Here is the input.
Amino acid sequence: MAAVEAYIGMGSNLGDGIAILSRAWQSLGEIEGVHNLALSSPYKTAPVDMSSHHWFTNAVGRVVTALPPEALLEELLGVETSFGRKRDAKSFGYQDRVLDLDLLYYGDLLMDTPDLILPHPRIKDRLFVLVPLIELAPDHKDPLSGATAGSMVEELKQRMRDQMVDQQEVIGGSWEERN
Here is the structure.
């Protein structure tokens, strides 16, 4: 299989998010068939679509992989588990978590299966994904809509101004900071 560029959303709202995401990024690079290319700055973000007092640390990573998308997703879930993530199928909605890894893009692949939807279906609604994404690839085109990451940020900010979606707070940081 030919190597494909993929983008991975990373988040943590339990524990030292900077340290957790740094170690998770290192773990991703240790997966056979995955080569880390670039990691955005970390961002502190208020929870979106969930009730929590814990803010998130978020980032986006760009990798090159020879793994098929389903196999890459399985590896991401394995890394989450190794960090103590427990997914409760009986729970409704989003919960606080030590580590969340989302496969955002896998090249230009469009996919919709019970286990994986590509591109990630909520990218356009998540400032905590789009802001770090534009740091890495402002002109990256969403294969579904054709919109660039930068234009999706502007469109989301307009929807926030028009009160069509809730406000989202995203504060830039650095990897040297500590919670």
Summary: The two ends are 41 Å apart (CA to CA). The chain has one domain: 4-88+96-172. The longest strand covers residues 56-65. The domain at 4-88+96-172 is CATH 3.30.70.560 (Alpha-Beta Plaits).
